Amino acid sequence: MKKLIALSVITLASLSAQAEVRINGFANLIGGVITGDDASYVVNGGLGYDDKISFSDESLFAIQVSGDINDKMTATAQLVARGENDYKAEFEWAYITYKATDKVSISAGRFRLPLFKYSASKDVGYSYHWITAPGSVYDVAFNNLDGIRVDYSTYVGDWEYNLQGALGTYSSEIGTGNVTGDNVALFTAEAAYEWFKVRAVAGRGKNTFVSSDLDAALAGLTGSGVSQLVDLADDLSITNDTGVFLGFGIDIDTFDYFISAEITSVDIEQSFSSKDSAVYITAGARLGNFTPSITYEKLDGNKDIKFLDKVAALPAPYQPSVTPLVVGLQQFYMTEYDVVTLGIRYDMDTNVALKADIRKYSDDMSTESNATILRFAVNYVF
Amino acid sequence: MHKKTLATSLISAVIGCSISFFSSAELVLVVHPSNDATIDAKTAQRIFLGKENKFSTGKEALPINQVPESASRASFDTDTLGRSSTQVAAYWSKLVFTGKGIPPKEVANDAEVIAIVAGNQDAVGYVDSASVTGAVKAISLN
Hints:
The structure holds 2 protein chains of 2 kinds. By secondary structure, chain A is an alpha+beta fold. Chain A has helices spanning 2-15, 135-138, 212-222, 227-236, 308-312, 319-333; strands at residues 21-35, 60-68, 73-82, 89-99, 104-112, 144-156, 159-174, 177-193, 196-210, 241-253, 257-267, 276-285, 290-301, 335-349, 352-363, 371-381.
């Protein structure tokens, strides 16, 4: 016994030494299948389940390594292997954090952009009650940022405040295209009082979307040599165009039950892309080791067709061919759907949770895409 | 069996339960005898949830947790941190994987907590009041 105590004291002493390297990891094994006859179902955002059980669409395994460079500086890297990428491991995050004071820390490198309440732990299924965070809100193309982030946290009495500011660039693939953002600036403010939390976020950046499909669609305009048509192509494309992100969240959690909601909007006004408004509201109860919950989410990226005034101003001979192009291009990228999810989490151990949910997806653009999906998951952290 | 005997044995069983429950739930904080910091349940909560890393004296605080299997851990999580051990684990998973915090080191039982706290001026732990020895200073959580 004494030996054991001596050993743990030694371990503890060595753990507090500066050379400490910490290895943590998490895993989400998620299986899903479409129930009923909706075998052709493909969800926006890539939840591509079909009528055969699949484990690779959303499963992931990750390792995080962090080490203290000195008293004030920590280096962290996260290696993630996603089923959708054939489990090829990639460094999704790599950053150095400098703890300037007890309240201020500065991180630089590649990290998760603090867009949503669960942004930072979006991939750690164990950290929340869902199998996956609501995709209509969380599946945006600009989740990871290369840049710098400043975190400030303080408390006054029982109120806690967190402020975050981030600056940088992002780049990610969407379908066959690639979207990049420059001069991205994001500001987040959060206030929490025991069981109550509110957060607000606002950001903007200069976006560019490069896609061979889009280029092909716009080739007729750009290649026409007619300045009005070239201008229209420029309006439709996303080339160094300002995008604005806004979000608001509220959270009530008494530990016996919880209810929370987030609402966001993404708008690149000067582009073919319709403004996306997304919202979810979720509620659940913690009954011993079980956490049943219900979630409603909706994505509305189906707004008025833009630039019709510019089309109307074109010389009449152009209008019959340009109108369907302008309308068709915008309609092609429009999405509108909602999902109702009934889920249950079972805490098997302090590092393992089992989950199951049933999701009813309703597509407002094409009812043929409607489907009901059954999923189950094992979340593990170490 | 006589009804009265049954009732008596039931009552004693109930009393027995409540006594054992009471004694296992009576946790105290323990710090090094030289630690003069003011610590109450709220401060302990902040320190063990990683929201505060210094004592009121300005000195570094090193929280010593117990493993989830230990008897003291469950009542500390429920009574002082105000959530179940699995909720505390989910809370830490969020901080660990966002680089915002490292959970307190865990040891196996009260004796190990006392051994560490007795030898480290920064350490703070919790034990059943019955486990307290002269080598550490006990602080009430009430």
